[in-house]
Amino acid sequence: MSDQANLTEQLSKDQGLQRDQVISDLEAVLRLPHGRRVMLRVLERCGVYRTAFTGDRATTDLRLGEQNIGLWLIAQMDLVDLTEYPRLILERAQKKAEDKGTVHVSELDEE
């Protein structure tokens, strides 16, 4: 095998190990209730739930950058489990409903 092929194979192995570590780390964070709360706060701060366009170029560019980070985090969660982000959003909705004293989403299914 040529030196280039060996290098390519080693890079592929290293990238695979790095990807596995990222997934493992994120799984550990998302298993913890406070890790899930932090992830939600970061996503909210990144503005993935608001429009980026403000009419001011500099502010719009800043918001687009923040959203890019938020979308990257969502993509990282998808590596862990494609249902992780939707579950996180559902938990957020349930918490907001609890805070307002309204019906839980799961209670709607029981009716």
TrEMBL record:
<dbReference type="InterPro" id="IPR057447">
    <property type="entry name" value="Bbp19-like_phage"/>
</dbReference>
<feature type="domain" description="Bbp19-like phage">
    <location>
        <begin position="29"/>
        <end position="78"/>
    </location>
</feature>
<dbReference type="Pfam" id="PF25181">
    <property type="entry name" value="Phage_Bbp19"/>
</dbReference>
<protein>
    <recommendedName>
        <fullName>Bbp19-like phage domain-containing protein</fullName>
    </recommendedName>
</protein>
